[in-house]
Backbone:
């Protein structure tokens, strides 16, 4: 193989293989597609990655990826500046924005507390979060973390740090049976939560 | 969305989405993984793509991708220079090399004849193939094209051009029931071919 595959292509395949969900076969296919594409994809990618390297930064306020600092959301006069949504990673901001259901500010933790992976509270963007909540006079902290053990642990840890802030409402994204899902095949944990935190219909209708 | 996603990231997602098998959701996930990776993946990709742009060429003999011209295989004194394997694309060379079953030369067509997609015989690397067969004094042309209608059409076209070359053996990769496959669920076309071109066991044992 070494003889036949130039080292540059081997390097590209190796880099792409480190992306989760991309195995070595897919990395090979993608690499060859890019290299043999007729519309000069290699140059296009060099250009776009150079542009990203030069212009993409992390917002020093909320931790979101942006081409401005502070980012567009932190700067926007149209957002509700009394509510702060806490997410694990930048893509979660985009996913939530796509719903159009939320108009407050964000805070990206860049991870969750995970003792198994050696990630402690000081390894993620928590102290800045506490600082912002106080500085901005936030009225509601809204957690939108994945409902797994790391997400719950992280939320519990942060909530414990917020106890001394007065008049602060703390909420979390609803957990329950997904739309299109069904009760019979739900796991017991989800179903238990969905029963315990059942929604009042008269509040929502 | 426009407000939240910097145009550089949007561009990267758009470019990656043009790769077959990568939808917009996957392109988004890959883009964010690369941009937010801790080991400076953006710079690594700029470097490797620049290296590819500068050093990867197409072998002027066989059409394979290589960092030398002629490529390593065309230059190798260890290969059997009397047999030429005809493939559709560079990755097919790599796949065949991985088997370790073949030690001859290659010829990459960079496509197959496909009237539906407007690809005619002059759009792929056929004239150079005929020239090489004559120049190199090839004794066997071995077709390893996909066994679909485009592959068969391409093979039939090339074979018609080889009729006047004397003492040339023309072979094609065996088609039949794949190992681990079963007769009951084989399609009739494959099964018909497997019966018509049944293999003599006494030749192979």
Residues:
């Amino acid at each position: 193989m070494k003889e036949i595959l130039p080292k540059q292509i081997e390097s590209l395949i190796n880099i792409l293989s480190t992306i989760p969900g991309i195995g070595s076969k897919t990395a090979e296919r993608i690499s060859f597609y890019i290299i043999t594409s007729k519309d000069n994809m290699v140059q296009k990618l060099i250009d776009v990655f150079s542009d990203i390297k030069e212009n993409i930064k992390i917002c020093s306020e909320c931790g979101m990826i942006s081409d401005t600092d502070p980012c567009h959301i932190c700067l926007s006069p149209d957002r509700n500046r009394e509510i702060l949504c806490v997410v694990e990673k930048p893509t979660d901001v985009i996913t939530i924005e796509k719903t159009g259901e939320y108009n407050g500010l964000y805070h990206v933790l860049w991870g969750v507390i995970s003792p198994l992976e050696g990630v402690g509270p000081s390894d993620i963007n928590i102290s800045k979060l506490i600082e912002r909540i106080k500085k901005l006079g936030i009225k509601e902290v809204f957690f939108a973390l994945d409902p797994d053990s790391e997400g719950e642990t992280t939320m519990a840890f942060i909530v414990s740090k917020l106890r001394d802030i007065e008049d602060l409402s703390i909420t979390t994204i609803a957990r329950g049976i997904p739309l299109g899902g069904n009760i019979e095949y739900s796991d017991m944990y989800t179903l238990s939560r969905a029963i315990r935190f059942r929604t009042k219909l008269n509040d929502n209708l």
Summary: Strands of chain B lie at 57-58, 65-66, 80-87, 104-108, 140-143, 169-172.
